[in-house]
Amino acid sequence: MSPTLHRLAVIATVIAFCVIILGAYVRLSHAGLGCPDWPGCYGKLTWPTATHEVQEANQAFPERPMETHKAWKEMVHRYLAGALVLLVVAINVVVWRSKTNRRARGLTGALLVLILFQAALGMWTVTLKLWPIVVMGHLLGGVATFGLLLWLALRYRPATSLSPPGAFLRQRGLIIGALMVLLAQLALGGWTSANYAALSCPDFPTCQGELWPQMNFRDAFTLSREVDVDYEGGVLDLPSRTAIQVTHRLGALVTLLVLGFLAIRLWQAPVTRRGSILLAGVLATQITLGVLNIVLYLPLANAVAHNGAGVLLAATLIWLLHRATPGEK
Q1: What is the mean pLDDT of the chain?
Q2: Residues assigned a catalytic role
Q3: How much of the chain exceeds pLDDT 90, in percent?
Q4: 103, exposed or middle or buried, with CB in 10 Å at 0-12, 13-18, 19+?
Q5: Torsions phi, psi of 44, nearest 5?
């Protein structure tokens, strides 16, 4: 396999991670609608800066006056995402022009389809005014894109002297199960953020001073809601947001137990012990950041780091799955 493919995949993986982190920063700093149109910003390819440009923008979008500190964040995120799309196109060109197997072409082709759909989700995030199901889907699409790029980078890297996958292979089923649990928890985290439910429980480990406060699960997880409503700031009542937050906490407990159990199993064999330490370290960091989000009342830097650590947990499990896959040396 061409080393060019590996290098492009590594670069794209790093950029995909940066796109996810920057997207979290945009969302958590309430800049998701910093540009009310797409793909430009108030009709421009950058964002209005001059006084007359700002005035024209405010006239064109009187319902959403120009806020420079939000607009530039949104546009920088779009530029970086656009660069990632071009990199994925380049990866496809390299693969299809080289003598590669069908699996490689299928993987890169699926990646291209995914990132184009991800771009559409980015557009709908704006045009549908932060519709929660789209916001959550956009986050999961970003994680899926990152995961496929990481798998591509691991699969087609130059030959290395890694040990055989035997010890990892024995844990393959548990690794896959742990990855599925984590993805479900990431989806819950995205739903929590999209519905602005992170601070509905301002205390820990209780919620509003109770172990089981008043909650409305029926409305909390209604995925299809009215379109053309501005969802910035959320529209759900407190019992509904509380139900989302409590479910996210329960999901975190399940994730801790499953991934913790996997770390214990990996510790038992010397050849897999490094994976155990890595998984346990990232897991502990993520749980700590989640608790700090509550007790520190969701500081921006900590909340963004919480998103990043979730992606790094996914990366750790993907790396473990790679080691547990025969032929993936």
Answers
A1: 93
A2: 74
A3: 83
A4: exposed
A5: -120, 155
